[in-house]
């Protein structure tokens, strides 16, 4: 059986994905990169406390097959655009380069609907540049997921996101056709898509959005 590595397992998508990986019969070991131990005990789980500033120097005691990146923050939480970019761009790229160097077979990452290198929107441009950077790496399969607003129970209350969530739940039924990719989506559905899509033998860079996610 395979070994999976996950970063961002304490986040909204990461929590759901970790549970799916732990209950999967495809993986015998799940390595979670964390800042501090916090994920509980499970016979298949191994938490590795690392410094994300020096992610490239991490040495796993196991051969890793698939890497799942659920790292992400907001500009408000990070405190600045620079701090946001460090998490959503730099850390993701460093993890992808690590996967390339360790000859991992798959790398799955979360981006955003509307991601583009050509937009003036800082958030979406950062996501687009992240996609462009990891797409050049020599990893057999690179899976990029572009969800819209994520729904789910967050550990911290964010007033703006809560208002957006309420509004999106109201407008979701109206978003059909080309607008469907902008529908808000449950974080657990994104996690399920990340797991399911990586269980097929597909090589190349594959981008999923809208109905392809959930």
Q: How would you describe this structure to a colleague?
A:
- There is one protein chain.
- 35% of the residues lie in helices and 21% in strands.
- The protein is an alpha/beta fold and 214 residues long.
- It has a single domain, classed as NAD(P)-binding Rossmann-like Domain (Rossmann fold).
- Strands 3-2-1-4-5-6-9 form a seven-stranded parallel β-sheet, sandwiched between helices. Strands 7-8 form a two-stranded parallel ribbon.
- α1 (12-23) crosses α6 and α3 runs parallel beside α4.
- The longest helix has 21 residues, at 81-101.
- The radius of gyration is 17 Å and the shape is globular.
- The model has no long low-confidence stretch (mean pLDDT 87).
How many domains make up the coordinates?
1
CATH class: Alpha Beta
Could you tell me the CATH topology label: Rossmann fold
Number of separate strands: 9
Q: State the share of residues found in helices, binned by percent.
A: 25-40%
Q: Architecture in CATH?
A: 3-Layer(aba) Sandwich
Low-confidence stretches: none
Q: What does the largest sheet look like?
A: 7 strands, parallel
How big is the Rg? 17 Å
Keywords: Membrane
Pfam families: Epimerase
InterPro entries: Epimerase_deHydtase, NAD(P)-bd_dom_sf
Main location: membrane
């Amino acid at each position: 059986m395979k070994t999976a590595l996950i970063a961002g397992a304490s986040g909204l998508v990461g929590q759901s994905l970790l549970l799916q990986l732990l209950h999967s019969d495809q993986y015998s070991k799940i390595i979670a990169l964390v800042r501090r131990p916090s994920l509980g005990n499970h016979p298949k789980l191994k938490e590795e406390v690392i410094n994300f500033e020096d992610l490239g120097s991490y040495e796993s005691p196991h051969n890793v097959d698939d890497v799942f990146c659920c790292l992400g923050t907001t500009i408000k939480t990070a405190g600045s655009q620079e701090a946001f970019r460090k998490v959503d761009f730099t850390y993701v790229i460093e993890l992808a380069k690590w996967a390339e160097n360790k000859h991992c077979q798959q790398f799955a990452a979360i981006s955003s609907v509307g991601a583009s290198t050509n937009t003036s929107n800082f958030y979406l441009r950062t996501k687009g540049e992240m996609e462009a950077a990891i797409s050049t790496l020599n990893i057999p399969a690179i899976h990029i997921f572009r969800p819209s607003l994520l729904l789910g129970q967050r550990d911290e209350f964010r007033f703006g996101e809560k208002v957006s969530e309420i509004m999106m739940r109201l407008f979701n039924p109206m978003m059909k056709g080309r607008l469907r990719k902008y529908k808000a989506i449950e974080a657990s559905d994104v996690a399920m898509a990340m797991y399911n899509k990586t269980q097929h033998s597909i090589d190349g860079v594959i981008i999923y959005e809208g109905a392809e996610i959930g």
